[in-house]
Every structure is written in C-alpha cells, then in structure tokens.
Specification:
Blueprint lengths: L10 E5 L9 E5 L9 H11 L7 E5 L5 H8 L4 E6 L2 H13 L5 E5 L2 H7 L5 E6 L8 H9 L2 E11 L10 E9 L2 E8 L2
Parallel strand pairs: 3-4, 3-6, 4-5, 6-7
Antiparallel strand pairs: 1-2, 7-9, 8-9
Helix pairs in contact: 4-5
Length: 190
C-alpha cells in the first residue's frame, strides 16, 4: 500500500508466513496510511491461490511494506514487481530485496495507477491491490488491473469497503472479511 506523506520514519516489522522466506521480517515504516495486510488475511489469500506460485508473474501495486509481493516471491513466483510511489518505502523495499537475496523481486518507483495504465496487457498471473483505505483509488485500480491479468489469472483487492463490483472481464472468486479488512479475489475467465 502506498503513502505519499513525508516525515520521519519509525519502523516496525511484519513477518512472512510461508514459503522459502518464511519467518523473514520486513520493516514497516511509520507512514500515514500504511497498514500491512494482516497475517491471517495473507494466509487466507495464499491458501486460496495455492501455496506454490512457481513461474507466476506478480504485480504488487501500492506495495507499501511489500508484505504481499515478498510473500508471493517466497512461494516461488518467478517475477514480482513492487510498484510504490513513496521514496522512503521504495528505499526500504529495495533494501529488503537485497537483504533477503531474492532475485525475483524488482522495485519501481511510480504512481501505481499511471504505471498500470501504461503497462502491456495480459502479462501477470496475479495482481495485488492494497491502496490506502482512506483513498478512493481501489475502483480505478481494479479496473486497470483487469486488463493486466492473463486469462485464468487473479486480481486480489483489499479494502475497508464491504463489497467491490467486479469490472468487466473479472468475476468474484473468493471473499472474506477479517476485522476492518475486506479481501476479495477476482478471477479472469480462462
């Protein structure tokens, strides 16, 4: 998830819960709007997807702490692109990729919506969307992600809203509410 605010950054940690990087810690900067996906929600998401993402190409838009993207890399994704606009978070994501020695993860500083609008269509097996809850970015991001996912691929959306409408080309596959988090997994028809 993205945050555009500036200021001093205190850090906390989030732990990866599965795969080759299980138990590795990621720093979580104290940035307005930054709230990593809770462990329970991440565990449910990757149970829905299957634990082995070998060969998958994954986009983590609004990457924030990178918890979702690094979790995908930990579970075998071949390529994980973390798109984040906040410079402090970009630096942290790059440092985590180096420290964890994961060559599958690339970090790009960019506005996620603008990046998705320019990206080639149908190149990702999974697109992860977790913008700040207080923003109104998710509906537009979900629409943009629909064209980026391959047939049979998935778009994960996390919000504080109760239900998002599936854009054309996607159908709701799974859904869960956990506390303030509403998680939805959409699938593109094969």
């Amino acid at each position: 998830m993205r945050s555009a605010a500036k200021g001093p950054a205190r850090t906390h940690e989030v732990r990866l819960i599965g795969g080759a990087l299980k138990r590795s810690k990621l720093p979580v900067a104290d940035r307005p709007g930054l709230r990593p996906t809770p462990d329970r929600v991440r565990e449910t998401l990757f149970n829905w997807l299957g634990h082995d993402l070998s060969g998958w190409r994954v986009l983590d838009a609004f990457a924030g702490s990178g918890a979702l993207g690094f979790e995908a890399a930990s579970r075998g994704a071949a390529e994980v692109l973390l798109v984040e606009n906040d410079g402090v978070l970009v630096t942290s994501l790059q440092a985590s990729a180096v420290r964890l020695k994961t060559t599958a993860v690339r970090v790009q500083r960019a506005d996620a919506l603008a990046w998705m609008a320019r990206a080639a269509p149908a190149v990702f097996e999974l697109v992860l969307l977790d913008p700040p809850f207080s923003s109104a970015l998710l509906p537009a991001a979900l629409h943009a992600a629909a064209r980026l996912v391959v047939p049979g691929g998935y778009v994960y959306a996390e919000s504080g809203e109760t239900q998002l409408s599936a854009p054309e080309g996607l159908a709701l596959h799974r859904s869960q509410r956990a506390g303030a988090v509403h998680a939805q997994l959409f699938m593109k028809a094969p």
